[in-house]
Write a structure and sequence with these properties.
2 copies of one chain form a homodimer. Chain A has 1 helix and 11 strands. Chain A has about 130 residues and is mainly β. The first copy, chain A, has a domain of about 90 residues: Jelly Rolls, CATH 2.60.120.10. Chain A has a 6-stranded antiparallel β-sheet with strand order 2-3-4-11-6-9, covered by helices on one side. The longest helix of chain A is centred in the first third of the chain and has 7 residues. The two termini of chain A are about 20 Å apart. Chains A and B meet through β1, β6, β9 and β11 of A and β1, β6, β9 and β11 of B. β9 of chain A pairs antiparallel with β1 of chain B, so a sheet runs across the interface.
Chain lengths: ~130, ~130
Amino acid sequence: MIVRDYNDIIKSDRNRVVSDAKWSSVRMLLAEDGMGFSFHITFLEAGSEHTFEYKNHFESVYCMQGSGSITDLATGETHLIRPGVMYALDQHDRHTLRAEEDLVMACVFNPPVTGSEVHREDGSYALETT
Amino acid sequence: MIVRDYNDIIKSDRNRVVSDAKWSSVRMLLAEDGMGFSFHITFLEAGSEHTFEYKNHFESVYCMQGSGSITDLATGETHLIRPGVMYALDQHDRHTLRAEEDLVMACVFNPPVTGSEVHREDGSYALETT
């Protein structure tokens, strides 16, 4: 059994925290944990906008706090984000996420993120092999 | 892209809500969604105790609200549960979860739950094929 506390990680295990422009993510579970998925608590700063396309991953995102919106760039459709809303990128959907207030999201990736990916210019992660 | 709102589901999509003795779970993503994992928001009633052993599944559980504890029945070790604590049953660990206050948890299963499983007497889910 693996037990990890978000509150401890942000104080003393900073190599599990990754940040980029106006977002940061706490890596609660990575590929090396052997669960077959990774699990992340991700923060997006109020007023920020992010375009991602996980060509090699499925991702689900559950909003725990905050408000904003997500636009599916294939269809142009926009959905409001508030606590309780989940979106799942089952088509590796290219999307723009906007934070109206600070957003706190619980994210799951399959295949699991290894921890060494970087967002490429097209908003994707490369598929890494461990 | 799949978008679902927990708040809508509990009002008007009750076939996504499953309940048993002193717990209930909202099935945000199931096997049929094709993500390779399932995602659930689970409630455990204050004062309740639950023993589970997912022999055929990996499960991670992230505490969003409430307090309690989890005991690893193989080692006897007990960990406190509070918001921000995650446990991951990477060894299919048999465990007892106790809710001191009402617990609200974000749960991920791999392989994904199909929705037709029931908890067996030993606290496990059978492995279902879709």
